[in-house]
Amino acid sequence: MTRTTSTRTASPSRRPASSPAAAPALALYEQVKDFIVRRIQDGSWRAGDRLPSESELVAQFGISRMTVNRALRELVEQGRIVRVAGVGSFVAEDKPQSTLLQIANLASEIRQRGHDYRCDVLAVERTAATLDVASALDLRTGASVFHSLCLHRENGVPVQLEDRYVSPRQVPRFAEQDFTVIQPSEYLVRNVPFDQVEHVVDAVMPTPEQAALLEMSTTEPCLLLTRRTWSRGNPITVVRCLHPASRYRLGSRFRADGNPVSG
User: Fold this and answer.
1) For residue 203, how many other CB atoms are within 10 A of its CB?
2) What are the pLDDT digits (tens) for 205-255?
3) Exposure check for the chain: N or C terminus, fewer CB within 10 A?
4) Residue 245 and residue 225: Cα distance in Å, rounded?
5) What is the tens place of the pLDDT at every residue in 97-156?
6) Where does residue 180 fall: left (phi above 0), alpha (psi -120 to 50 degrees), or beta otherwise?
């Protein structure tokens, strides 16, 4: 990779105490990584921008060069940055997204059938991560996460209850979106490139609260799709999509090479 010295330079933060204090329980090298990743995620530093030098980071955080070097080395391994000997460290270019299982656009599917689609946004909030959410997003229990709850309707009939948690580190502007206009999944696919996805499907019975929202009986089974996505090893979101079994089914068709069949 060829870099020139005319490349934009990302300036160090002018809030010297804020970054280390933001996550006091993190190891020192993790604080440096968090500082860099946050500025990449919020758009302050873009692909090709030069990062502060090791010496600047040492002075800013008041830590050893060895600690800073470890943080930069791990960011290189995760594909976040590239280092050019004698030149410096740069924000890495985004790589094309590729995944075995596609994330369906429910709104498009419904509209393609000629039916009316509506999304009832029941909640968009910042909340403390429970043990299972923290585990899924690789966070500490009680850490702040975004939470959204949406009810998707086809011709007015509820077909999916979407219960989603999102890492603020990966998607800092999630709570600012109007999810009556764009689905949470569509927003994430468009704005947060992912390179890994996990789908797990279970047959479950709805809770009384879920049944009430889905306008169904508590004795009717549901299909529960749990999805997690990652970007360069960092969890982005975990979402549980609950579908009344009588109104919806899950399926896909793929070629032997793992690519979806179009048409």
Assistant:
1) 9
2) 999 999 999 999 999 999 999 999 998 889 999 999 999 988 766 655 555
3) C
4) 12
5) 333 345 667 888 888 888 999 999 999 999 999 998 998 999 999 999 999 999 999 999
6) alpha
Same domain, 59 and 128: no
Q: Mean pLDDT throughout 85-90?
A: 88
**Sole residue written with tokens 């990652």:** 230
CA distances (Å), origin 77, targets 83, 229, 232: 11, 19, 9
Residue 49 or 262, more confident: 49
86 and 111 housed in the same domain: no
- 160 in a structural domain: yes
How many structural domains are present in the chain?
A: 2
Could you tell me which residues come within 8 angstroms of residue 262 by beta carbon, excluding any fewer than 6 positions away? none
The closest of 78, 3, 67 to 40, measured between CA atoms, is 78
Do residues 95 and 79 touch, judged by C-beta distance below 8 A? yes
Handedness of CA 27, 33, 38, 44 (dihedral sign): positive
Note down the domain range covering 58.
18-91
Residue 23 belongs to a domain: yes
Whole-angstrom Cα distance, residue 60 to residue 52? 10
Question: Could you tell me where the beta strands, DSSP code E, fall in the chain?
Answer: 81-84, 88-91, 117-128, 144-154, 157-166, 196-204, 222-231, 234-244
Spatial CB neighbours of 59, under 8 Å, sequence gap ≥ 6: none
Q: Give, rounded to a whole angstrom, the gap between the first and last alpha carbons of the chain.
A: 39
Better pLDDT: 26 or 134 = 134
**Rounded Cα–Cα distance for residues 3 and 87 (Å):** 8
pTM summary value: 0.60
